[in-house]
Amino acid sequence: MPKAVDAVAVSGLRSSALADDLSFLLARANAIALAAGNAALAEHGLKARSYSVLVLASGEARPSQRELAEFLRLDPSQVVSLVDELQTRGLVQRQPDPSDRRANVVVATEAGRHLVSVARESARAAEERAHAQLSPEERETLAALLRALAFPED
User: Fold this and answer.
1) Residues of the chain with pLDDT under 70
2) pTM
3) In whole angstroms, what is the distance from residue 103 CA to residue 15 CA?
4) pLDDT at 5
5) Which of 28, 103, 114 is nearest to 69 (CA)?
6) Do the Cβ atoms of 87 and 16 come closer than 8 Å?
7) SS3 letters for the chain?
8) Which residues contact 113 (CB under 8 A, 6 or more apart)?
């Protein structure tokens, strides 16, 4: 949507009941940040979901596809497709899980780890732009609040 049209539409709708609905505000903020992230990651041939899988596969955790699906809150079939795409590009490998031979862990290749290091800078820059109206302290507070929602204590 062009910015001029968006500004007109938003100005008239900002006073609606949705402007006080926390779930709506989270969804709208997410949509804005996701669009910025996807645009920045496109130059690397990634989107937010494939980037997320690649980042997790680049760490020490060696996640299974099931763990990726649970952590990212995606349907397992979506994770299979994401891993297939990344594997086709030579960015990840499926390896047998040493603790459960029926499962695979997803591990980034050298090329995948390199791409993550390059793409991370683009993602961070997009995040900075998407949250530019917040001070560094407000960003820290927002991140802490979102972590509390995303990872509730049991």
Assistant:
1) 1-11, 154
2) 0.86
3) 50
4) 45
5) 103
6) no
7) CCHHHHHHHHHHHCCCHHHHCHHHHHHHHHHHHHHHHHHHHHHHCCCHHHHHHHHHHHCCCCCEHHHHHHHHCCCHHHHHHHHHHHHHCCCEEEEEECCEEEEEEEEECHHHHHHHHHHHHHHHHHHHHHCCCCCHHHHHHHHHHHHHHHCCCC
8) 58
